[in-house]
Amino acid sequence: MSTKGYSSRTNFRPASNGSGEKAEEPLYVNIRELGSGSFGQVQLAYNRQTGEKVAIKLLQRGPDKVTKNVERELRSHISFCHPHVVRFKNLFLTETHLAVVLEYVDGGDLFGYCSGKGPLPEDEARRFFQQLVIGIDYCHKMGVVNRDVKLENALLDASHTLLKITDFGYAKTSNDSNCMSLVGTPGYAAPEVVSAARKQYDGTKADMWSCGVMLYVMLFHSYPFERADDPPGQKGYAKVLARTLRVDYRIPSKPQVSKDCVALISKLLVADPQGRLSTEGVMKDPWFRKNLPPGVEHLNEQCLRMKMGTEEQAQKEEWIRRKVEEAMTLPGMGSGRQGSGGSARSKSGAMTFDESFEAAYKDEGLR
């Protein structure tokens, strides 16, 4: 996605209201680019009034750039108020972009952290995993499934002790249609998600499979369904897909991890979603509960009590709908049309229905 016009120290000037009046003074000033997510590039900025640093996702305006999927992500994210979920802060339009203002988390993502450290000690992996599952449990209780749980979507604070879930680009709420789409990231997607049958599936259980993959990667510094001798490209992807469907993974002999930890992984990487642990099941597991900070068990209850009322939620969702609808047009374009919904592979490597998926099945003779 282009962020042309937003170089360092550029102001995020709001779009004109078309009345000829002078545009309001920009609230945010850009600092630098942070990276890219599933649907846009992210800039670090600061709030001129408070001095607070924020992360701003920039989506280029226009019917082919801003789609109903964007509205769905924002509706999923707007009501969250939890220490392990990145906070939504604001939404505004510039002449060229829809800008989504989020809490800034300054320690990088868990993928980068693990890449630099190698296999994490079991206690450290447990601490991150506890926060991940508690955050996912909160999302599920709020009626939202993430569908793209992975190391890259877990941000850390500067001390590398606090984890926050981010990027709800593939999220669905209980008000949306049922989960049937092939979405997520290869290596993290559950068997029912990548199955050729393409039947309706339980998004909460698909999230738990991905949590199991994340725990495995933190502990062993490798992906459970990849092998060192896999061929590159499409053929390698086909191998991963086939092993995922067979739940064909191994527990390395080194580094050694406890039997309780291996047992928990085996209860998450289960082919049948009905037999896979839910967040509640994981939170009762003895390995998970070890060294659990005091009071954490009641954290989600406290956060859920802060949930906004139905009327306020409806008002915010309508505000988002109008902003997204306006963002589907460029100034002077007239009324926008709905975008395609995004059927191509995203820049983050996430997958949707595409030719490579079909080819992978043919390569492994799975059709």
From TrEMBL:
Gene3D superfamilies: Transferase(Phosphotransferase) domain 1 (1.10.510.10). GO terms for molecular function: ATP binding; protein serine/threonine kinase activity. Keywords: ATP-binding, Nucleotide-binding. Residues 333-342 have a biased composition (Gly residues). Residues 28-288 form the Protein kinase domain. GO terms for biological process: intracellular signal transduction. One of its GO terms (cellular component) is cytoplasm. InterPro entries: Kinase-like_dom_sf, Prot_kinase_dom, Protein_kinase_ATP_BS. ATP binds at K57. Residues 1-21, 330-354 are annotated as: Disordered. SUPFAM superfamilies: Protein kinase-like (PK-like) (SSF56112). Residues 1-19 have a biased composition (Polar residues). It comes from the Eukaryota. This is Protein kinase domain-containing protein. Pfam families: Pkinase (PF00069).
